[in-house]
Amino acid sequence: MAPHPTRARLDRLRVVASTPVSEALVSHIVAREPRIDFARDEALLPPQRFAGDHAGDPAFRRTAEQQRAFEDLVDSAQALYGVPDEHPAALQRTVRNNPDLRWVHTMPAGGGAQVKAADLTADELGRIAFTTSAGVHAEPLAEYALFGLLAGAKTLPRLLRQQRETR
Fold first, then answer.
1. Any idea what DSSP says for residue 86?
2. Do 95 and 63 fall within a single domain?
3. Where residue 73 sits, what CATH number does that domain have?
4. pTM of model > 0.90
């Protein structure tokens, strides 16, 4: 039996994207840390409906062959970029089938709830570091909320109507 792909190279970090990630971002990461082997297969991921859509099109379905390929891919990771299929059961399956997995970065808000719902053992939780992007969008969200308050306070629809009428 051939050795598991990650066991052969301890001087490298195999990161697998289980959620869509742009080629530009992958190139940026690998350029800054050349010891990273970043693997992804966009054909195995649901198409994004909008930028930042980590769950993708809910109508997306993999064939049995594609599902095996996806599971083989995530099972080869030392680090996962995203929870597989954004689903706790898929996270649990991956953790239990991949003894080399050491790090999972959850993408959307509620990553901690996904990890909790995966019902991992204390040993599994101790073996894997879980991180999140929580808070990364706090500043732009605050700006947008402030914009909404100011638009209401300054009666933006009235101002836009007046602007159109003066053309």
1. G
2. yes
3. 3.40.50
4. no
Q: Which residues contact 116 (CB under 8 A, 6 or more apart)?
A: 88
pLDDT of residue 3: 47
Give the model confidence (pLDDT) of 21-69 as tens digits. Answer: 888 989 999 999 999 999 999 999 999 898 878 888 999 999 999 999 9
Rg of the chain, C-alpha, whole Å: 21
Other CB atoms within 10 A of residue 153 CB: 8
| Distance in angstroms (rounded) separating the CA atoms of residues 147 and 44 | 38
The rounded distance, in Å, linking the Cα atoms of 130 and 106 is: 7
Range of the domain at 61: 13-136
* Count of domains observed in the chain: 2
pLDDT digits (tens, 9 = 90+) for 89-103: 999 999 999 999 999
- What secondary structure letter does DSSP report for 131? E
Same domain? 62 vs 35: yes
> Do 109 and 69 fall into the same domain?
yes
